[in-house]
Design goal:
The protein is α/β, with parallel strands linked by helices and 242 residues long. Helix content is 32%, strand content 19%. The chain is elongated and about 55 Å long. The structure holds 2'-O-acetyl adenosine-5-diphosphoribose (OAD).
Length: 242
């Protein structure tokens, strides 16, 4: 019964997304061939030590990614749109936890989103931890709005060795959900890689949708191989009509 993907069997869906959901919009994933990490050493652009060593390189890396995000050509794809439709029309609650730092779920109309790895359109003061929204490039010369000093702002991105945001809330949602989707993530980065197993231990039905099988595929109740933008629209329609 629990394994029937009929919406009436479920009250609370948690959806975990990764870089694969945004791939069909033209944003590079991290670990695929020609992915973001191929041209950069992770420790250079995604660690507090890398930022300390060469802040300019780090500012540059995120400024370029922010610019790409704001380009008029960049749009949510059918996968993002299907998930927003699911949230709007599902009779219960939907919580979307994304590892992505882009804003394509928001652009698609998704409402209840947790950005566990931060957001490209935000920066944070190193002294006060105040978070500011920005569409502009910034660097060490940019004066911080709260302390009016240079060398205070950093990208509001979770780097390796740092704790992801909203972990208490995510734990709570994982323990309350009865259906869990993992979409477009390789499951190589913890703690997100554990979420499927946590949800399953708490009694949820777990479903993976990914272009390629992952190391976690055997642990999901269902694993669907294919592109999110192709799989999700009919999948969501069937679910909502069930
Ligand atoms: P990865 O690049 O590790 O994995 C992306 C996954 O998406 C791969 O398994 C691909 O097969 C799959 N994929 C690619 N195109 C797809 C498509 N059209 N539809 C469905 N799946 C597709 O990216 P993440 O798992 O998101 O963290 O990486 C997790 C974290 O590692 C990122 O949030 C980032 C990185 O270090 C931080 O920056 C803190």
């Amino acid at each position: 019964m629990k394994h029937d993907l009929n919406q009436k069997n479920f009250q609370h869906i948690v959806i975990l997304t990764g870089a694969g959901i945004s791939a069909e919009s033209g944003i590079k994933t991290f670990r695929d061939h020609n992915g973001l990490w191929e041209n950069h050493r992770i420790e250079d652009v995604a660690s507090p030590e890398g930022f300390e060593r060469d802040p300019s390189m780090v500012y540059n890396f995120y400024n370029k990614r922010r610019e790409q995000l704001l380009s008029p050509d960049l749009k949510p794809n059918f996968g993002h749109l299907a998930l927003a439709k699911l949230e709007k029309n599902f009779h219960g609650k939907t919580t979307l936890v994304t590892q992505n730092v882009d804003n394509l779920h928001e652009s698609a109309g998704q409402q209840n989103i947790i950005h566990m790895h931060g957001e490209l359109l935000k920066m944070r003061c190193l002294t006060t931890n105040e978070v500011f929204t920005t569409e502009q490039s910034f660097d060490g010369q940019t004066l911080c709005a709260c302390c009016q000093r240079p060398n205070q702002l950093r990208p509001h991105i979770v780097w390796f060795g740092e704790v992801p945001f909203s972990m208490d809330r995510i734990q709570l949602e994982l323990s309350n959900c009865d259906l869990f989707f993992s979409i477009g993530t390789s499951g190589q980065v913890y703690p997100a890689a554990m979420f499927g197993q946590i949800a399953k231990q708490n009694g949820a039905l777990t479903v993976e949708i990914n272009k390629d099988p992952t190391e976690n595929s055997p642990f999901f109740d269902k694993s669907i191989i294919g592109k999110a933008g192709e799989i999700l629209p009919p999948f969501v329609d069937n679910f909502l009509n069930s």
